Amino acid sequence: MIKWENKFFEIDEKEEEEEEAILSQFLNEQQQNSKQNNYFECQTKFVNLPVHGCKMALPEGSTSKSSTLCEEIHIPPPIDNNKKFLANFPRLKIDELDEFAQTAFDGIKSLNVIQSQVFDQAYNTLNNLLICAPTGAGKTNIALLTILRTIRDNRTKNGKINKNAFKVIYLAPMKALATEMTSNFSKRLGRLGLKTRELTGDSQLSRKEIQETQVLVLTPEKWDVITRKSDDEELSQLVRLLIIDEVHLLHDDRGPVIEAIIARTLRRIEVFHQNIRIVGLSATLPNYNDVATFLRVESNARTFSF
């Protein structure tokens, strides 16, 4: 018997048992359907736990804790099922890359699942890309793959890199991130004899230093100022790859600056027929298709949202 709003209600135990039987049958059917479709399999065992005054079937290992302030439910992750699912997506081994590219991944045995899925478009094509993935998913390595592709296109037959034939521009929205990326790329690309330098409001480079640098890491505001100046045309003409980190900031107060940079880059491509590849990196975006269209990412195969 349950009291609710000063009224008493009888609970039919037989009806409760029938409901549990129906629920159990439904879960078994879902489990069978999941196996047939090769998706995540449902948990094989369930436990009935009290949740908000009702019994709920939750995966085995789940716990319920109630207090005067809240009700806490802990559901363990389906580790075994994740392993089965991820087995469908093989990870690319670093030793399968070109020999010079392996140098940049020294100490790493393989790419992760997301990087492996993007690899073909990032390294084997010159297509514009939009990569949407959570923080910590390894977008930096994806950016590195696109840089290595640019380097590969500027190598001679004997494997020597023509360092004066290209520039890579990496836009980072924060100075701290710019410093971090500069350190990361300096370490990895330095093994190939390439230089990475930071150019932000707190750091200045001479014209000679810029000429000697292959990868420039800047804030959007700094690159916006540079590309507006006619006396920096020599630098703009050498750009072959533009990587925009945190491109979802198009919706932020700094969006107009990023938008102007992209529009100016697209104009160079259309008017001067300059080969510039645009790669956008972002956290998960709800309207990634709109951003992809703006970046001239021409097909869904070149837009990745994880």
From TrEMBL:
Residues 120-303 form the Helicase ATP-binding domain. Keywords: ATP-binding, Helicase, Hydrolase, Nucleotide-binding. InterPro entries: DEAD/DEAH_box_helicase_dom, Hel308_SKI2-like, Helicase_ATP-bd, P-loop_NTPase. Gene3D superfamilies: P-loop containing nucleotide triphosphate hydrolases (3.40.50.300). GO terms for molecular function: ATP binding; helicase activity; hydrolase activity; nucleic acid binding. It comes from the Eukaryota. This is Helicase ATP-binding domain-containing protein. It comes from Meloidogyne enterolobii.
